[in-house]
């Protein structure tokens, strides 16, 4: 548990799990078996973990508020966080609990299908969030909005952050009204369509409409097209470089981790978006949910790293 006050640039609140990834020559169909083209890869993953590691590679002092089971997979998660210099004093291993797992299927085009098996015993409670954030000062807090409503409320009650960022489709119990407590809301095109009730051909239109729910600024990622943002000052699309995608899983998390870091460093949203899109374009060129740390660090920092104090 956290002791004393800790100062971080970005705190991420959400899930960590293991990723079990297979590459397949084609999608499975009912009644037929598809053989993976390579052995399954098992690695630490989860949206908040991926975002936290990306932010750490981008130079931020980062912590992850989350849980995993006290099993071999949970220890793998902690090791991955520590290797990336993410502060793990906010992260707990729950005794006798299993760590969640994501089964990721990567097709020949680099696109992914993901099935997430949650571990109910490791889901964050509002009491855990309040206790851990209560001993923390962070310029930016990023939370997954699909957490339980009381847990999301506990994050939104945290007043120390200058910027509060939400991600993913809100839990039904949170609803769209919960977006009004955010400074920035980040989703992909499919998530935006689920929230708005229709698909927008132009991600800029989707970002504009998301702001109608009270969020100060909204970002809609659009894959190979880049990402759009809408704020009180402007609405624009930041195009992505055209690259050959190897694996798109986790690219959105790299994008958000770098975006949060840039905002913690007081960069304007327009500048932060450019750096985040660049990082996302790098991410899709490597297998797995995260590009090699050295590559991401080189992209975002020019090879320089800032270390998190133990």
Summarize the biggest pleated sheet.
Answer: 9 strands, mixed
What's the N-to-C terminus distance?
A: 14 Å
Over the alpha carbons, how many angstroms does the gyration radius reach?
Answer: 18 Å
Shape-level CATH architecture: 3-Layer(aba) Sandwich
Order of helices and strands: EEEHEHEEEHEHEEHHEEEHHH
Principal-axes geometry comes out as globular
Q: What is the total tally of β strands?
A: 13
CATH superfamily, please?
Ribokinase
Count of DSSP H/I helices? 9
Class per helix and strand makeup: alpha/beta
Q: Specify the helix fraction band.
A: 25-40%
Overall CATH class: Alpha Beta
List low-pLDDT spans: 303-310
Neighbour order of strands in the largest sheet: 5-4-1-8-9-10-11-12-13
CATH topology: UDP-N-acetylmuramoyl-L-alanine:D-glutamate ligase
**Average residue pLDDT:** 91
Keywords: Kinase, Transferase
Protein name: PfkB family carbohydrate kinase
Organism: Micromonospora sonneratiae
Domain Carbohydrate kinase PfkB: 9-292
